[in-house]
# Entry
Amino acid sequence: MSKRTEALVLLLAGGVGSRLNLLVHSRAKPAVPFAGLYRIIDFSLSNVMNSNLTKVGVLTQYKPLSLMRHLGTGEAWDFIGRSRGIKVLPPRTGFQDSDWYKGTADAVRLNIDFVESNQCDEVVILSGDHIYHMDIETMIAYHRSKKADLTVAMMVVKRSEIHQFGAGIVDEEDRIVDWEEKPKEPRTNLASMGIYVFNRKYLLDVLREDKSEIDFGMHILPKAIDNGNVFAFPFYGYWRDVGTIQAYWEANMDVIKKGSGISPEEWGIRTNIETEGRVADRSPARFGKTANLKCSMISSGCDIKGTVINSILSPGVVVEEGAFVKDSILFTDCQVEKNAVVDLAIFDKGVHVGRNAVVGTGNNHEIPNEKEPSHLYTGITLVGKGAEVPPGQLIGRNCIIHPKTREDAYPGREVDDGASI
Amino acid sequence: MKPATLAMILAGGRVDELNVLTYYRPKSAVPFGGFGRVIDFALSNLMNSGIERIAILSQYRSFSLINHIGNGAAWDMIGRYRGISILPPYIGSEGAEWYRGNADAVYKNLDFIRYHRPEEILILSGDHIYKMDYRDMISYHHEKNADVTMAFIRVPNEKTHRFGVAALDDEDERGGRILNYWEKPQEPQSEWVSLTVFCFKPEVLFDALEMNQRDVSHEFGRDIIPQLMRGNYNLYGYKFHGYWGYTRTVEEYWQSNMDLLGDNPPVDMEKWGLRTNLEHRDIRDCQPVLFGDDVKVQNSLVYNGCKIEGVVKNSILFPGVHVGKGTVIDQCVVFFNNVVGENCRLTKVVTDVNCNYGNGVVVGAEDDSVNDLVTVIGWANSIPEKTRIGKGCTVYPHLMANQWPSVVESGEVLR
# Structure
């Protein structure tokens, strides 16, 4: 691809992702840590980098600071040099249109000046909150070969799940002839991945038409299909929208599982190592004489003297002698003291579990969380950033322990299943 | 702000006793600590001491070192008055010459030093493992109005004959005037040994190097310091306390690595503020260590990118090491990207980068008997299945497939 005709990338990273509960308490969904070392947005960014695309606008909105620190100068994904770069595009005021982004198309519309100021033939629009591996260069080549105005990446999905997606009906040439947004009774099994390649001029025209069209899937796409130049780009492979706690947990566990189809290293996923802003680099993970490991992923800087089974540990996690961690995901610098147990839990950064405490006690996985039953109902307990679990404390299933919770906040020795502190 | 201190690192060269580990790299670029290189200690010390204008004098196989330094950004030495410059030997108008000693190396780069007009010049070796804030030594140097200040550490008497030794006037705990200095004395008369860290007043350095050019030997320890002792200069010794890893042999190198393990290791890399270049060999692109379902890992350091399916004990694994099912790695230092097949047994081995071990290979002791000699395997070797290599062996880098016998006897050298 010559420089002049290189596609411009717009990465939508403004979403709240509220069903991720505490994990998006202080950060946008794309900035949520994943698989120990990474953040969710690393997958989209690395796919863009590995597809030789070098100009990216990242549209932020909800709690963007963690994300902005993670993006840094863009150097981590090779967006460095005269003609390459990542630009963060938050909502902003101006002469005319100025407001919060109301939807995916609205966000892009409010950044028309960014699109206009970049010489490109195509604009690639994708979100930053999916886990997948795609060569976007191939999709752009496909788009050009079909002479499409708009190409939508689509994947085959179980009929029982189509209601979560935009669904497309295609003809023999893969032209999209009909569209249904989140259909209750699907007529197809092709789901939209929310990845679009637009011809630049077509995008600008379409956005200028009707300002009330704020969503690509709901408004722009159905209308575009009537023109007849919208094509589906078939995608095969691992793809996950880690929008719920259960989906997030499962995707992480897939990274440990053999043959699951996901491998960050093989996919060329890169993260920003400077995000933490530490003086010293994290040294190799240290395993003591009493360490006991099985089917787990352990990051640099961890200090393991206890047992870790089927879990993912971010850098700097300490598991003391006699402690037991299973089926869990622990973010950076968590500490699990002697003989404590952590079972089926997700810990945000810096959680401290005192001696002999148990997070995830009992077998009542089906009692959903009282305050947020739609978020936690499969047994996973969530502990927020910097929270303390006092020595000897018992915490049940589907519990939510808010960030910075201290010992005096606990009502008693036992926290019932489904409780929130 | 223009820095007052210019640091010059002596990158070192080939060390015979480290044989194959310095076959393709200078000693300072030898991997250490499970993810970095020996020179990271000197560089991190300088970074943490706020000294950010550095020259590295290197002439032996600099490629690995040049890759490791990169543009200096890894240690924040990038920007207006910051930077790491690698200074190799060059062809001048009067001809070409290699560096004839570390003092000659500095002499040949006097124009670099003069260009930066430093207030003091810190000259240090790049191949030792230690933590030091040089600012304290430089303050001491200024307080005493010293012409040269050298750092010393106490070392047990049996070992001092390998180093430069000084008798210090016992003024205080920080240091004292150097009363006498001997280079590698047969019968040492003091326990204070030189760390090869010198702080010079620029004019003193220039004069000493100029005078030394008439000599036939050009080493700081052997020639410059004794020369200055004979003149009327103020030479002071700064007392250093703390761990100091000086590794000259494969056995010592292995032991320094083992010193990183255990409950209270004397080297704490994170506390020391150690940084490496994570771009070198792309170790920043590694995912966290992946452990399989039938593994055992004890008393070991394992960095990202490793995939463990077997047993790892008392060992240090650098990024990207694969350990197959049924394999036991014990008391080993395994460099970057080694792939060890299934049912292998490696005991007390240092294996250089990019080696491949076929299934069933046994290196070192075959059982739990006392194993006192380290076997070292040079880089990029593909060891055929079921090969047996004994204890204390040396295997040179990159052997051809047909060069491998089925048994390499203990103590043998294979090249």
About this structure: Chain A is about 15% helix and 25% strand. Residues 331 and 349 of chain A are 5 Å apart (CA to CA).
